[in-house]
Amino acid sequence: MRSSSPKGSFLIAAMVCLLVSTSLAVAAVRSARVAQRELQMRKQMLQTEWLLDAAVHRAVRRMEQSPEYRGETWIATELTERWPIAEAEIVVDPTETSEDYRVHVTARLSAASDDRFTPQASRTQRSHTFTLSASPKLESSKDAKSE
Protein backbone atom coordinates (compact mmCIF):
# COMPACT_ATOMS: atom_id res chain seq x y z
CA MET A 1 0.00 0.00 0.00
CA ARG A 2 1.27 3.32 -0.94
CA SER A 3 0.46 6.55 0.93
CA SER A 4 -0.34 9.76 -0.91
CA SER A 5 2.65 11.83 -1.82
CA PRO A 6 3.27 15.08 0.07
CA LYS A 7 4.07 16.79 -3.24
CA GLY A 8 0.52 16.23 -4.48
CA SER A 9 -0.98 17.57 -1.25
CA PHE A 10 1.12 20.72 -1.45
CA LEU A 11 0.14 21.22 -5.08
CA ILE A 12 -3.57 20.93 -4.26
CA ALA A 13 -3.19 23.30 -1.28
CA ALA A 14 -1.33 25.81 -3.47
CA MET A 15 -4.04 25.65 -6.16
CA VAL A 16 -6.79 26.18 -3.57
CA CYS A 17 -4.91 29.20 -2.15
CA LEU A 18 -4.46 30.59 -5.66
CA LEU A 19 -8.18 30.13 -6.38
CA VAL A 20 -9.20 31.87 -3.14
CA SER A 21 -6.81 34.79 -3.68
CA THR A 22 -7.95 35.20 -7.30
CA SER A 23 -11.59 35.23 -6.18
CA LEU A 24 -10.82 37.90 -3.59
CA ALA A 25 -8.96 40.01 -6.15
CA VAL A 26 -11.85 39.80 -8.64
CA ALA A 27 -14.34 40.79 -5.91
CA ALA A 28 -12.16 43.77 -4.94
CA VAL A 29 -11.92 44.97 -8.56
CA ARG A 30 -15.70 44.68 -9.02
CA SER A 31 -16.32 46.59 -5.82
CA ALA A 32 -13.91 49.33 -6.89
CA ARG A 33 -15.65 49.65 -10.28
CA VAL A 34 -19.06 49.96 -8.63
CA ALA A 35 -17.73 52.60 -6.23
CA GLN A 36 -16.14 54.50 -9.13
CA ARG A 37 -19.41 54.54 -11.09
CA GLU A 38 -21.34 55.69 -8.03
CA LEU A 39 -18.84 58.48 -7.38
CA GLN A 40 -19.00 59.59 -11.02
CA MET A 41 -22.81 59.67 -10.91
CA ARG A 42 -22.80 61.71 -7.70
CA LYS A 43 -20.32 64.13 -9.26
CA GLN A 44 -22.52 64.47 -12.35
CA MET A 45 -25.65 65.03 -10.24
CA LEU A 46 -23.88 67.76 -8.28
CA GLN A 47 -22.66 69.39 -11.49
CA THR A 48 -26.23 69.28 -12.85
CA GLU A 49 -27.47 71.01 -9.69
CA TRP A 50 -24.83 73.73 -10.12
CA LEU A 51 -25.79 74.19 -13.77
CA LEU A 52 -29.46 74.48 -12.75
CA ASP A 53 -28.59 77.06 -10.10
CA ALA A 54 -26.55 79.10 -12.60
CA ALA A 55 -29.39 78.94 -15.14
CA VAL A 56 -31.94 80.13 -12.56
CA HIS A 57 -29.71 83.10 -11.72
CA ARG A 58 -29.22 83.75 -15.43
CA ALA A 59 -32.99 83.80 -16.01
CA VAL A 60 -33.59 86.22 -13.14
CA ARG A 61 -30.77 88.49 -14.31
CA ARG A 62 -32.04 88.49 -17.90
CA MET A 63 -35.58 89.28 -16.73
CA GLU A 64 -34.22 92.20 -14.71
CA GLN A 65 -32.34 93.48 -17.78
CA SER A 66 -35.19 93.03 -20.24
CA PRO A 67 -38.86 92.42 -19.38
CA GLU A 68 -39.32 91.06 -22.94
CA TYR A 69 -36.99 88.12 -22.24
CA ARG A 70 -38.84 84.84 -22.92
CA GLY A 71 -36.09 82.29 -22.46
CA GLU A 72 -33.31 80.52 -24.29
CA THR A 73 -31.37 77.32 -24.55
CA TRP A 74 -28.12 78.13 -22.83
CA ILE A 75 -25.14 75.94 -23.66
CA ALA A 76 -22.57 76.12 -20.89
CA THR A 77 -19.43 76.19 -23.03
CA GLU A 78 -17.23 76.04 -19.93
CA LEU A 79 -18.51 72.51 -19.32
CA THR A 80 -18.60 71.09 -22.84
CA GLU A 81 -15.03 69.83 -22.72
CA ARG A 82 -15.97 67.38 -19.97
CA TRP A 83 -19.67 66.98 -20.74
CA PRO A 84 -20.68 66.73 -24.44
CA ILE A 85 -24.15 67.95 -23.51
CA ALA A 86 -24.22 70.74 -20.92
CA GLU A 87 -27.27 72.87 -21.47
CA ALA A 88 -30.06 74.64 -19.67
CA GLU A 89 -33.41 75.39 -21.22
CA ILE A 90 -35.09 78.50 -19.84
CA VAL A 91 -38.76 79.17 -20.62
CA VAL A 92 -40.47 82.36 -19.40
CA ASP A 93 -44.26 82.59 -19.73
CA PRO A 94 -46.56 85.34 -18.49
CA THR A 95 -49.15 84.25 -15.94
CA GLU A 96 -52.73 85.39 -15.53
CA THR A 97 -51.46 88.32 -13.48
CA SER A 98 -49.83 90.80 -15.81
CA GLU A 99 -46.92 91.43 -13.41
CA ASP A 100 -46.02 87.77 -12.86
CA TYR A 101 -44.01 85.37 -14.98
CA ARG A 102 -43.67 81.63 -14.63
CA VAL A 103 -40.07 80.59 -15.22
CA HIS A 104 -39.22 76.96 -15.91
CA VAL A 105 -35.54 75.98 -16.04
CA THR A 106 -34.26 72.53 -17.02
CA ALA A 107 -30.57 71.66 -16.79
CA ARG A 108 -29.16 68.64 -18.63
CA LEU A 109 -25.77 66.98 -18.54
CA SER A 110 -24.68 63.98 -20.54
CA ALA A 111 -21.38 62.21 -20.20
CA ALA A 112 -19.92 60.42 -23.18
CA SER A 113 -18.59 56.99 -22.57
CA ASP A 114 -14.95 57.20 -23.57
CA ASP A 115 -14.05 54.80 -20.80
CA ARG A 116 -13.97 51.12 -21.73
CA PHE A 117 -15.22 50.23 -18.24
CA THR A 118 -18.33 52.40 -18.59
CA PRO A 119 -20.26 51.05 -21.57
CA GLN A 120 -23.16 53.52 -21.44
CA ALA A 121 -23.31 57.27 -21.49
CA SER A 122 -25.11 58.68 -18.46
CA ARG A 123 -27.55 61.57 -18.50
CA THR A 124 -28.87 63.68 -15.66
CA GLN A 125 -31.58 66.30 -15.66
CA ARG A 126 -32.87 68.71 -13.03
CA SER A 127 -35.76 71.17 -13.29
CA HIS A 128 -36.95 74.13 -11.28
CA THR A 129 -40.11 76.18 -11.80
CA PHE A 130 -40.78 79.46 -10.04
CA THR A 131 -42.91 82.58 -10.32
CA LEU A 132 -41.13 85.88 -10.74
CA SER A 133 -43.11 89.02 -10.03
CA ALA A 134 -42.33 92.72 -10.08
CA SER A 135 -41.68 92.45 -6.35
CA PRO A 136 -38.55 90.62 -5.14
CA LYS A 137 -40.68 87.78 -3.73
CA LEU A 138 -40.14 84.40 -5.37
CA GLU A 139 -42.39 81.39 -5.05
CA SER A 140 -40.85 78.14 -6.15
CA SER A 141 -41.54 74.48 -6.74
CA LYS A 142 -38.88 71.95 -7.64
CA ASP A 143 -39.03 68.74 -9.57
CA ALA A 144 -36.16 66.46 -10.46
CA LYS A 145 -35.59 63.64 -12.88
CA SER A 146 -32.59 61.41 -13.34
CA GLU A 147 -32.07 58.98 -16.16
Q: Mind explaining what this structure looks like?
A:
The chain has one helix spanning 6-65, and strands at residues 71-75, 85-94, 101-111, 122-132, 138-146. The chain is of the alpha+beta class and 147 residues long. It has one domain. It has a 5-stranded antiparallel sheet with strand order 1-2-3-4-5. Strand 4 and strand 5 form a beta hairpin. The chain is rod-shaped, with a radius of gyration of 27 Å.
Q: Biggest sheet: strands side by side, in what order?
A: 1-2-3-4-5
Order of helices and strands: HEEEEE
Instruction: Specify the overall morphology.
Output: rod-shaped
Q: Supply Rg.
A: 27 Å
Output mean pLDDT. 83
Number of strands: 5
Q: What is the makeup of the main sheet?
A: 5 strands, antiparallel
Total DSSP helices: 1
Strand content: 25-35%
Model regions low in confidence, pLDDT < 50 over at least 5 residues: 136-147
Helix content: 40-55%
* Alpha-beta content class: alpha+beta
Keywords: Signal
Signal peptide: 1-27
Region (Disordered): 114-147
Biased composition (Polar residues): 119-134
Keywords:
147 residues; alpha+beta; 5-stranded antiparallel beta sheet; 1 helix; 5 strands; 41% helix; rod-shaped; signal
